[in-house]
Every structure is written in C-alpha cells, then in structure tokens.
C-alpha cells in the first residue's frame, strides 16, 4: 500500500521510517509537485517519471487521526466548543436580542423620570415626595434581582426572561391607570421586579453564548443596551409628551415589553451552560439543537462532571461559601456606591433642568444626552477590553465619573452646556456600570452566575433606591445643586478605591 504526503504544505501526516523498513509496502512521499521519492525497504530511488507528474497526497495516518479527532470531538464539553470556536452569526444574533432587552430595561427604568414633571404638575407633589416615587421601581429591582436571579439559576435564563417581560408589561400598563401616588408607587415596585430579574438573567445568558475572546465585549455590549434604551425611549417620550400626557410613556413601555416575548421565544434558546449544569434527561438533545443553530459540531454524549463542578454543586449553592464570600461582599459594595452616583444623574436631570426654567421636553432632551454619552462610554470600554484589563478600565471610569458629576453641579444653565457636561458624565458613569457587569460575569461559575449577578445588583441597588431619596432630601433641606452633586459624586470615588482592593485579592482578574 502506498502513502503520499505533500511536504510543501503544513505537515499533513507522519510516516515512521522504521515501519517502512519492516513493511513490504512502498511509500511515496511527494516532496514537491515535480519530485517523487520512492522508498522501498532500505533503498531510496528517484523516479524520473515523477518529474513530470503530480501525486495526489494520501495518508492513511491522516484518516486515522481524523477519525480519532471526531471521536474526541463527540465527547468534548460543549462549553469548551463555544469557548474556543469562532462566534457564529446566530450567537451574535442572540447577543443582539440581549442588547434589545436591556434597551427595553433602560427605557422602563427611566419612564418615571420622563413622566416626573407631568406627575408633579398633575398631583402637586414636592421634590421630597417625587424622590420617593422615583425610587419605587428601584426597590422592586433590588428585590427582583435577588429573588429572580436565583430563579434563573434553577429554571433557566430563557424562561426567566419571558416571565420578566410579562411582569414588566403588566406593571407598565397598570402604572398608566394609577389614580394617585400610592397606586403608582405599588405598580412601579411590580415593574421593578421584572426589571431586576431581567438584568440578572440577560447578563448570564450573554456570558454563556459568547466565546472566550469576545465574552467581556459581549457582556458590555449587552449592558450598552441600557443607555441605548434611554436614547430611543427619551426621543419617543419627548414626542409623546408634546402630544399626550405622562401616562402615554407607560403605555408605550408596556407595548414594547409584549413585542419582545415572541422574539425571545423563537430566537433565544436556553444557554448550553445552563443545560450542562442542570443535566436533565433531554439536555443532550437540547444542547445539540443549539449547537446546530450555532453552526458548531454536535456532541455524542454528555461529558462527565468535573470534580470542581461537583464541589460547586454540593458546597457552592450559596454566595457566602468560602470561595465566593469576599468577592460577593466587595463587588456588592462597589456596585452600591457607584450606582448612587449613576442614578443621581439619571433620575434627577429632568426635574433639575425643568426647575432651571426649561420646558419638560427640553429636560428630556438633556437626559437623552446622558444616554448618548453612556452608549459611547459603553462602546469605548468594550473595545478597550480587547487590549486592556477590564478591572483597571472600570476603576478609571469610576474616578472620571466622580469629577464629571462634580462638574455638572457647577455647569452653566443653558441647554447646550448642560447637555455637554451631562453627556460626558453619562459616558463615564455608564462605562463604570458595564465594566462591573463584565467583572461579575467572569467572577462566578455557571451554577451561580445569575444568582451572583442578581445578588450583587440587587443588594447594590439599595444605592440606586437611596440616591433619588437622598438627593431629594438634600434639595428639600435647602442645599444647592453644587453641594448635592459633590455629595453624590463621592459614591464613585469610594467604589473605585474598593475595586482597587478587590483587584489586589482576586487571582482571576
């Protein structure tokens, strides 16, 4: 039997010479298109006829190796396939859906900010009362992040997202029918439950559909949907408020939430990492169905659990397990402090600008500037993660946030100046937030990823609920904008210092 190898290309196969010596077979090695070397036992001759003909390369060892590689591939962990293979168009489409869901999340969170001038005018409430109203969905988000985030690790990311969309739609439609401030607060808490669970589930789903190279970028792009929703929502809200009252903003949010349900149902399958963690009777079939949609090879059987996975399954069900306790506590503190600065900007801009004598539609436009800056900041940070460590990028964004929010408190009162400083502040504060989402996704295993995201964001969002209330009481106590902005900016500075300490003790970043 003859075997030929094209030596002008990368090594296709190996022929062991000692085997050739013992074998009566003849092996032909094609060293170039014009030269054939014939080896027969110990004798090597140059065949003249080979100078004028090519030999089709063939190597039986290649066949055996290909067969072995196929066998190994069939037993390969599908998570490793996703980690190492190039991202397909289908994977990018799932990331795009997650971006859209966070855009919806961003609009729903700020819908109360867009509506706040009209609510204050209709019901005659002061700044302190308005601060409480602005905080209500943040309270719901904190609860939803913790409770629903844990559910996402038990029932799946996709089912959780669909449930959250239903809750959000119900809360938005109900808010539009509120007869008084009490009922509005109740419905905003309900909406917040869905909003909080949504972020926990989408953060995990995005991290698990991306490969190693683009994981941080994809999580940051997902989080960039938040300011994108602010931009689109702010533009829509400005148009709605010129023709209708504040209730139209909530109706629009409810309709948008309903429209996303079929998109998620048909085009965003459950993550492979979750199926590997759950290991139900039909997990293999579902994993292979998703691998086919991604354009990746299927697996023949479920790989065995590693010792680390078994340890996490038995001992790591709580974030307070020794392996996760410190990073959970510190990342929660970081999120708590920075989110206070972030939500001071987002929640109070419309009211502050309106009190300067500008129209509510102009105030909504300034808020859109913050969102445009946030979207740019998210994109820049995401691209930077391809070359720099996400930890240091996030720390830098937080320190920059502190300075820019202080600058907002001392900015001139014309719309152009306000829009510029608010856009810069939005750029830095949002970059810090999306950087934290990427850090959280990298810090915890699959079995705890949504739980950790929900817990860090849920408890941390105590800061988001506190920010509008604290700023409201500071304003009510007679403090001017510059003092209030300085106070609220300190949150980002403290968050950066804590994150520096986290960087010193964390080995995985």
List the helices and strands and how they pair.
Elements: H1 17-22, E1 27-32, E2 35-40, E3 43-46, H2 60-74, H3 78-84, H4 89-123, H5 127-155, H6 157-176, H7 181-209, H8 215-243, H9 247-267, H10 272-278, H11 283-294, H12 307-315, H13 325-355, H14 360-384, H15 390-409, H16 415-443, H17 446-460, H18 462-476, H19 481-505
Antiparallel strand pairs: 1-2, 2-3
| Overall helicity | over 70%
> How would a textbook summarize the main sheet?
3 strands, antiparallel
Instruction: Provide the β-strand percentage band.
Output: under 5%
Supply the CATH class of the largest domain. Mainly Alpha
Instruction: Say which CATH homologous superfamily of the largest domain is assigned.
Output: MFS general substrate transporter like domains
What CATH calls the topology of the largest domain is: Growth Hormone, Chain: A
Indicate the structural class. Answer: mainly alpha
What do the pLDDT scores average to? 79
Number of beta-strand segments: 3
Number of helices: 19
The N- and C-terminal alpha carbons lie at a distance of 55 Å
Strand arrangement across the biggest beta sheet? 1-2-3
Q: What does the model show?
A:
The protein is mainly alpha-helical. It has two domains: 17-74, no CATH class; 78-505, Growth Hormone, Chain: A. It has helices at 17-22, 60-74, 78-84, 89-123, 127-155, 157-176, 181-209, 215-243, 247-267, 272-278, 283-294, 307-315, 325-355, 360-384, 390-409, 415-443, 446-460, 462-476, 481-505; strands at 27-32, 35-40, 43-46. A three-stranded antiparallel sheet has the order 1-2-3, with no helix packed on it. β2 (35-40) and β3 form a beta hairpin. α6 (157-176) packs antiparallel against α9 and α15 runs antiparallel to α16. The protein is globular. This is MFS transporter. Residues 94-507 form the Major facilitator superfamily (MFS) profile domain. It is a multi-pass membrane protein. It is found in: Membrane. The chain crosses the membrane at residues 89-110, 130-152, 159-175, 181-205, 217-243, 249-268, 329-349, 361-383, 390-409, 415-444, 456-477, 483-502.
């Amino acid at each position: 039997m003859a075997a030929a190898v094209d030596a002008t290309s990368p090594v296709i196969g190996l022929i062991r010479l000692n085997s050739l010596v013992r074998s009566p077979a003849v092996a032909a090695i094609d060293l170039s298109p014009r030269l054939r070397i014939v080896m027969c036992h110990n004798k090597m001759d140059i065949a003249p006829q080979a100078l004028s003909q090519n030999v089709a390369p063939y190597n039986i060892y290649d066949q055996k190796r290909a067969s072995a590689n196929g066998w190994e591939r069939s037993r390969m962990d599908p998570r490793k396939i996703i980690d190492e293979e190039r991202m397909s168009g289908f994977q990018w489409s799932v990331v795009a859906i997650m971006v859209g869901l966070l855009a919806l999340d961003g609009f729903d969170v700020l819908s109360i900010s867009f509506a706040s001038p009209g609510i204050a005018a209709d019901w005659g409430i002061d700044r302190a009362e308005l601060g409480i109203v602005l905080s209500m969905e943040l309270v719901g988000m904190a609860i939803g992040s913790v409770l629903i985030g844990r559910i996402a690790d038990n029932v799946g990311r996709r089912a959780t997202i669909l449930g959250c969309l239903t809750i959000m739609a119900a809360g938005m439609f109900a808010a539009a029918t509120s007869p008084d401030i009490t009922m509005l607060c109740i419905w905003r808490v309900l909406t917040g439950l869905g909003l909080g669970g949504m972020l926990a589930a989408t953060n995990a789903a995005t991290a698990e559909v991306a490969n190693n190279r683009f994981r941080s970028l994809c999580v940051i792009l997902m989080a960039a949907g938040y300011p994108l929703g602010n931009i689109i929502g702010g533009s829509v809200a400005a148009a709605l408020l010129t023709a209708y009252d504040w209730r139209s903003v909530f109706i629009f949010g409810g309709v948008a939430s309903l429209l996303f349900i079929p998109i998620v149902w048909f085009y965003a399958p459950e993550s492979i990492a979750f199926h590997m963690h759950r290991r139900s009777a039909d997990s293999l079939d579902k994993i292979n169905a998703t691998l086919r949609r991604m354009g990746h090879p299927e697996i023949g059987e479920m790989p065995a659990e590693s010792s680390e996975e078994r340890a996490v399954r038995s001992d790591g069900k709580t974030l307070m397990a020794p392996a996760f306790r410190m990073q959970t506590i510190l990342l929660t503190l970081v999120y708590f402090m920075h989110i206070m600065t972030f939500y001071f900007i987002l929640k109070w801009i419309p009211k502050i600008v309106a009190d300067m004598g500008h129209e509510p539609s102009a105030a909504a436009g300034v808020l859109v500037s913050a969102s445009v800056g946030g979207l740019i900041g998210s994109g820049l940070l995401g691209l930077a993660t391809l070359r720099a460590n996400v930890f240091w990028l996030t720390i830098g964004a937080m320190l920059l946030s502190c300075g820019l929010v202080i600058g907002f408190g001392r900015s001139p009162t014309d719309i152009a100046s306000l829009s510029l400083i608010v856009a810069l502040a939005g750029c830095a504060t949002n970059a810090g937030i999306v950087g934290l989402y990427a850090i959280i996704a990298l810090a915890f295993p699959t079995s705890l990823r949504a739980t950790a995201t929900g817990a860090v964001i849920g408890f941390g969002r105590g800061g988001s609920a506190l920010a509008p209330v604290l700023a409201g009481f500071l304003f009510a106590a007679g403090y001017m904008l510059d003092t209030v902005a300085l106070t609220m900016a300190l949150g980002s500075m403290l968050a950066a210092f804590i994150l520096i300490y986290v960087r010193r003790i964390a080995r995985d970043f």
